Amino acid sequence: MSAAWARIRADPLRWLLFAIALGTFLSGLALMLLPGVVLDLLSAPTRTSDKLFFAIIGMFMAIVGGMLSHALLRPPPSELVVGWSALQKLGASVAMSFAVALDVFSAAGLALVVFDFLSAVLAGAYWWRIRS
User: Fold this and answer.
1) pLDDT, position 29
2) Contact 17, 86 (CB under 8 A)
3) How distant, in Å, are the alpha carbons of 56, 82, 99, 103, 130 from that of 125?
4) CA distances from 110 to 1, 3, 47, 127 (A)
5) What does the radius of gyration of the chain's CA atoms come to, in whole angstroms?
6) What HEC string does the chain produce?
7) What pLDDT is recorded for position 16?
């Protein structure tokens, strides 16, 4: 068994959160670079202002995802970073729920609502476990 696999098996929640954080970082970069493509997938308007707004959201996603990824690679991970990241995921879930309910985004956005909410629950559980 490799050392990396042993670390993952020793704390699967931590490494699941790492995968989510890395995904948040990468999807944030995608939003920054290709906001129109993502807006098209969500059947949302693609005016210049919409693209700029989505690119800004992507920047913050990349920062929070990168920060959480970095924190989870360090022993011990920062409980502040994990806690605030859980709140960010919860906030993203609530915001996207409103956007779908107000017909800003199509029902496809509900997949993001569920993913972000479950991510918030997992991050909250991990934060609860590591807090001092």
Assistant:
1) 97
2) no
3) 29, 10, 27, 32, 9
4) 38, 37, 22, 25
5) 16
6) CCHHHHHHHHCHHHHHHHHHHHHHHHHHHHHHHCHHHHHHHCCCCCCHHHHHHHHHHHHHHHHHHHHHHHHHHCCCCCHHHHHHHHHHHHHHHHHHHHHHHCCCCCCCHHHHHHHHHHHHHHHHHHHHHHCC
7) 96
In this structure, the dihedral spanned by the alpha carbons of residues 65, 67, 68 and 70, taken in order and rounded to 10 degrees, is 120
Q: Tell me if 85 sits within 8 A of 21, measured CB to CB.
A: yes
What's the one-letter identity of residue 50? D
Q: Report the C-alpha gap between 38 and 59 in whole angstroms.
A: 14
Query: What gap in Å lies between CA 97 and CA 94, rounded to an integer?
Result: 5
Number of neighbouring beta carbons within 10 Å of residue 120: 21
| pLDDT tens for each residue of the chain, 132 residues long | 577 677 778 899 999 999 999 999 999 999 999 999 988 888 888 888 889 998 999 999 999 999 999 999 988 899 999 999 999 999 999 999 999 999 988 899 999 999 999 999 999 999 999 997
